[in-house]
Design goal:
With about 260 residues, the chain is of the alpha/beta class. It is about 30% helix and about 30% strand.
Length: about 260
């Protein structure tokens, strides 16, 4: 079982008073860890640091003891899949299948190009997301929910050790949202990946995540099992809203219902 650990990571945007500081945080493979917090809390910044898109001022990001911030780009690309927050809105001439094939890039010989096996793996990923009929359609012609499903397929085709998903369920209708949650849970366990997911919807987080990292103003508010962390007190502290826990079937959900006074 792999363990991702973030130690003493600090990042500050140029010409900004905001700073992110994560003293110590870890997540294990075969689990989904939700990263929650208000807008501007540092959720996307943390994912970008782990992905190697942003370089922290100090700190380490370790996978089973290996500092992944120090490995070469190709090695990192084979270890990590990343879906950015705004990728579903990008206009591109590529088809859905070509978008998914991009997830295979670290494994493709640039002199030969994608093999029939790469195409087969990509089509299978689209099938699992209920999007195989979109394969040959231009990505730009798809709806927001269809684009999100294609991007999720791209995230799983390389069997990554770390999956970083920034708001991956936005634009999905209730049925596809539930199907995507089920699929992600299956895939994370199947490929033995560490999965970090930023979310705004607390109800979805309580349904989807094994662990929760709550952040506010670039600092950790709480971290632990979803059942323990998603409580009325922590939601109030993080979002300044009141919430209540309810049990639906076998699931315990937390639902915000009012602004704090």
């Amino acid at each position: 079982m792999g363990v991702l650990r973030v130690e003493g990571v600090e990042y500050r945007y140029p010409n900004s008073s905001f700073s992110l500081y994560i003293e110590d945080f870890h997540s294990e493979s075969k689990c989904i860890c939700g990263i929650l917090g208000p807008n501007g809390a540092g959720k996307s910044t943390l994912l970008k640091i782990i992905a190697g898109i942003l370089k922290p001022k100090r700190g380490r990001v370790l996978l089973d003891g290996l500092d992944i911030l120090r490995v070469d780009m190709k090695t990192r690309a084979r270890m990590i899949s990343y879906i950015g927050q705004n990728e579903a809105g990008v206009s591109t001439p590529f088809t859905a299948l070509q978008i998914v094939l991009m997830g295979r890039t670290p494994w493709i010989n640039p002199w030969i190009g994608p093999t029939s096996r790469d195409v087969e793996i990509s089509m299978e990923a689209l099938k699992r997301l209920g999007a195989v009929d979109l394969a040959h359609r231009p990505f730009s012609s798809l709806s927001g929910g269809e684009r999100q499903r294609v991007l999720l397929a791209r995230a799983i085709v390389s069997n990554p050790k770390i999956m970083l998903l920034d708001e991956p369920l936005s634009n999905l209708d209730p049925r596809y949202r539930l199907e995507a949650i089920r699929l992600l849970r299956e895939v994370v366990r199947e490929i033995d990946a560490v999965c970090l997911v930023t979310l705004h919807d607390i109800v979805t987080a309580s349904m989807m995540c094994d662990y929760i990292l709550l952040v506010k103003n670039g600092r950790i508010v709480a971290y632990g099992s979803a059942e323990d962390v998603l409580c009325e007190e922590n939601v109030l502290k993080t979002y300044d809203v009141r919430a209540v826990k309810v049990r639906v079937s076998s699931q315990q959900l937390i639902i915000p219902f009012d602004l704090a006074e």
